[in-house]
Here is the input.
Amino acid sequence: MSNIGEYGKVYQNFNWDISERELGYNKGDTINIGEYCSDRICKMGKGDKLALIWEGFSGESKKYTYNDIRIRSNTIASFLKNLGLKPGERICLFMDRIPELYIGFLGVLKLGGIAQPLFSAFGAESLFTRLEDAQTAAIITQKKHAPKLKTILGQLPYLKHIIIVDDDGSKALREKELAFHLEKEKQIESFDIFPSKAETPSVLHYTSGTTGKPKGAQHVHYSLISQFISTRYVLDLHDDDIYWCNADPGWVTGTSYGIIGPWANGVTQCVLDSGFKAETWYKFIEKHKITVWYSAPTAIRSLMKEGDETVKKFNLSSLRHLCSVGEPLNAEAVLWSKKVFGLMFHDTFWQTETGSIMISNYPGMPIKPGSMGKPFPGITATVVDLKTYEPINKAGVVGLIAIKPGWPSMMRTYWNNETTYQSKFKNGWYICGDRASIDEDGYYWFVGRDDDVINTGGHLVGPFEIESALLEHEAVAESAVVGKPDPINMEVVKAFVALKAGFEPSKMLDLEIMNFIRKKLSPLAMPQEIEFVASLPKTRSGKIMRRLLRAKEWGEEIGDTSTLENE
Amino acid sequence: MSDIKNAVLSYVKNEYLEEDDDREINFDTPLISGGIVDSFSMVSLKRFLETKYNIQISDAKATPEAFDTVNNIINLLKEFNVQ
Here is the structure.
């Protein structure tokens, strides 16, 4: 029997009090996610239950019970407190998927700090933009990532501490660096957990937009109410499940459903800190008898590419429920998973800003392959007209996905950017920025983004940030960046580049520019294709018409070109 | 062939490790599954090989497995008579 039971009935009768009751939370109580994910589970008698089974790429492994993560998160919180860090300060977690990242996240929250996880593949400039905006007070990282801070440290006056979790003493620590070893520290049995309330800030996740710098979506501890119950209803986690979420906690799925959701439900989760390799992944599922798997379309399509024969080498019969997130899951991938695993992937839709799943396919509800599913209980969703923002009541008509504000995990603001936050609301709806239609049965069907943001492998990349970085290359006079269709990643970054006088297009220059962006921003932002052009299409006022270039890549109608400069 | 092997290894070290990253990388170190070169960065490694050795590697051949170690890359290059 699934946790949600019959979707239609639950949707009709649902209110968030159900989640509050299950968590034992009463309005006005203190609510600290760090405590709810560790101490509370121990008090329920599950202290000896495994919380985390971790495996590194070379096969090394570690296991932590709920009591272990309770004590170790206390130890991290205590260490941070002794450094003089205070509640409300932003503490960045900049690590690969190692245990310190997961447990450290709880530790920061127990201190009352605002956890700021960042993807460890970010280059110095991407890191700087986000640390500067958040005025981050401390960063917890690994020896191999610390050098990225070297060139930007002087411009980050608010950054007081760089905490290295794997220092081996082989090199002298640099300015502001200090060593912390989770296993060697004196373990703290009892920590005075910060008495956060529902609206106390908890997590700051940065996300990219079409223009301007990345925005920090700020969440609060009350988000737990959404994350807990959506984990239960959508991921269908039961007490005896072994759960695996592929997402990196540098992104919101990795925290909402890679830390908070499973641990608030007292479930055992597995983490594999390894790059993609189909056989490694299948072996991991087989070895740990994973039952519930939350993956992403890019990963699923990459597995498809490896072929059915690879799947057959492994016993994957432990799997009982599959979900997917990050970008729309194409029907072919859903049907393939049914063929090879005997189970369909359940697509889910949500965003950094929403904090938890908004639209989804549920256990027991018939899946229409290629559809996003239906709104989560407690979520009032619709599609609205692109101009009037009035709900569209006709099936099959494309509009903007819109959610009625008020669910617990809704971001509370964009850090330092309340104006942009307010601009997300139109006519009483939160506008997600994605276009979709709703069919006659109430299923949502994704159409595309409503802006120039590029969704590559489930990660949103802002073209403006890449274009700005491109201009810093000595050969680049001007550039425009768009998403180009890709069979695995949905979209990849393509850059149109006009060179300065004295530079000629060449394969070497192409590679040099690719690597320049990869190191400066991140591998996600690196253009996978560069087209050298004599000039870029512009409006008469000089603005680059990115949409013309995008339309060309997607084989779409170019539309109105009346403002084109050289028409 | 050892010149090519060393050239590829040297490129990986210089391009995909931070300046102060003192991890030892040899011809059998897992690059993709080991998280040194992620699936996005693999495109730039592919482009390097294509540019340096004047070949075209099809998407079908550019698998994570084929790029997972320097030795695997060398085996791939042999298919293009690069040796």
